[in-house]
Structures are given as C-alpha cells and as structure tokens.
Amino acid sequence: MARDAMTADATSPLERGSSSTLARRRGLMVALPLTVFVALAAVLGWGLTRNADDIPSVLIGKPVPEFSLPPVEGRTLGLSSADLRGEVSLVNVFASWCVACREEHPLFMRIAADGTVPLHGLSYKDQPQDASKWLDALGDPYTRTGADLDGRVAIDWGVYGVPETFVVGADGRIAYRHIGAVTPKALDATILPLVERLRAEARGRQP
Q: What is the pTM of this model?
C-alpha cells in the first residue's frame, strides 16, 4: 500500500502537467476558430454598412489608363483613352446582365436627350449580341461605346463590378468615381455640379 501510494505521488505531478498542457491546447483549438469567426464577421459587417462611394480609387486625379476598344456590335464609334481628352465626359461601365444597370439607364437617357454631358459606355464582359440587343431595347444614350469583352480595360480602371461611372476632366484625368447605380440624387447633387466645375476650370486654363 505504501509503495503504491509513493508511486502515485511520484507520477501524479507529471500527469497533472500533461493534463494541463492538453487542456490548454484544447482551449486554443476552440478559441482560435471563434476568434477568426468574430474577426471575419466584424470585417463583413463593416463592409456591408460602408457607403460604396467611400471606397477610394487610386486613379482619382490620374490620367485614364491607355486603351482602345472596338464599338459594341451595331455601333460605329469605338472608345479609346484619346477620346476622353478635350472635354469633360462621363464613362459608364455597364453590362446587359447587370440588374442595377437597368435601374440607372433612364437617367442616362435623360442626359443624352438633354445633351448635358458626353456619356460613353464601356461594355463589361458581355457577349456582343447581348450588349447590342440590350441597347436596342432600352435605348442607346452613349456617344461612344467600347466592347471590353475580356474585362481587361475595366481592371485597369480599377472596376470592382458593374455598374460604375467615372467623371473624366477635359485633361483626360479621372476626377470622380461612382460605384453602383447612379441615382437622381447622386447625379444632380454630385456628378453634374462636378461636371460644371471641371468645365469652368478647363475654360480658366485656356489662353
């Protein structure tokens, strides 16, 4: 009995140490996934509550990327970076499969009808016949269109998805970027006033 007690007393600290280490490891295994989940949830929640217009663009104030695209099927005027110099203009990234593009389209038809500002369309990853049918059905508000079949030009512009709309100054520099469907409020309170300001600045630079 005494020998058994001595043996138990001699080994119990090691056993207790092993048990403690195992418990800590199990605790870490449980806590780590929970911590990762909480962090991801926080990031997701921040992204969902953030205004898309607040997402910064590294191209603001910089020249538009160099590109040259053929026109959408059935149109005659393609779109290139050279076409975006000399006057203030808008560039709208759209696609026939984009639901939000359909929501903003009547505003662009209004711009075209009023002759407010040149509006160019960048067709993003769309089948040629689909983009053509979409514009034929809803109306074509664009002065020029560029068929970006593989989306490479849109990537150069830093596009996250469609629709996106850019305000380009007469100097060919990107002045503003709107992510998502353009609303009447965004158009009348932000985009068009900026267009007028850029026009005034361009006139002021003329000799």
A: 0.74
